[in-house]
Amino acid sequence: MILLIDAGNTRIKWRLVGLSPIGEGAFGHDRLDVLNDVFEREPRIRRVIGANVAGAQIAQEITALARQAGLAPEWLSAGPERCGVRNLYQEPGQLGADRWAALIGARGRHPHACLVIMAGTATTVDVLDADGNFRGGLILPGVELMQRALASNTAQLPFVAGHFAQAPRNTADAILSGCLQAQAGAVERMFRQIDTAPHACCLLGGGAADTFADLITLPLQRVDNLVLDGLARIAQEG
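The chain above was modelled as a monomer; its predicted structure follows.
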């Protein structure tokens, strides 16, 4: 049995896999006791594979929990090629482990050209061509982070709830609509790089995906846990 861990900016997701998925869940950074319960409940775990963008402290705490169970986590780092995906970053190792795992998961789910969009604290928009080449991508603030940046750095633009509108007529709606349009606009501009490829589509996941999914006027699949899907493919590779 293998434990897969996606340690993100705000939440940690996990999945247990054997010959097939056995269970999964998610929790905040302050609830690592949940992971400890998983180790105690499943003594058959023989391997731990993780992608971490939550920082060194979280990695150390997860590693300590795993060691109590006699295990040493394998923390993913990006490389030039894996599981049919080639990393064309100028320095492949600089690519975030979560983006790398998500690209690998996307390739397993959709073996054609696609745009891999992970919407969370930050939004990443990555181009994967039909041959499995990761051509590059964008990192931009997520919807809430954009809103908070405006509230923190301006005198008269508060952090308040608004509603989306095509032509907003109040400040709250203008802020939210601008942030949502920025997300969708980044997606649609990046999609131009693959829009003539057969079966090209967007794979959209992450905790904030539903906030702007309806604004994307492109072939779209809503997907969950692409990072864990990628880690599962890596585990299968050996």
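The mean pLDDT is 96.
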